[in-house]
Amino acid sequence: MRKIFLLIGAIFTALLMISTVTAVPQVNSDPLMDKINEIEENKRMIDEKLAAINPDIETGGLIDLLIQIIQWIIALVQQIIDFILDIFGLVELIEYLIGLIVTLFELIMSLIDFIIDIFTPDAVRF
What we know:
Layout: H1 2-28, H2 30-53, H3 62-119
Helix pairs in contact: 1-3, 2-3
């Protein structure tokens, strides 16, 4: 019976740890996701306005070059934002790993203390 409770507790703890790991990036990335959505909305509005101004005329020359430069800059900014989000995720995972290692060392110390208590009884009582 004790083994069953221990197994259920271990499974519950593992599921809890997995759920906290998957929830961390979403909580910390909301402001960045808002900025990304704003940039994508601005890009869509620029594309719509350009299409409304020149529906039948093909852009060429300097205007086409400027549009390509602006699109390249937007793509570069999005890649930088993705890179920063990846770094935030990596930092969160490292912090989580450090916490798990600290917990592991505490459990090992508790196990060592328990083993020492088993082999060295306090006092024999009669």
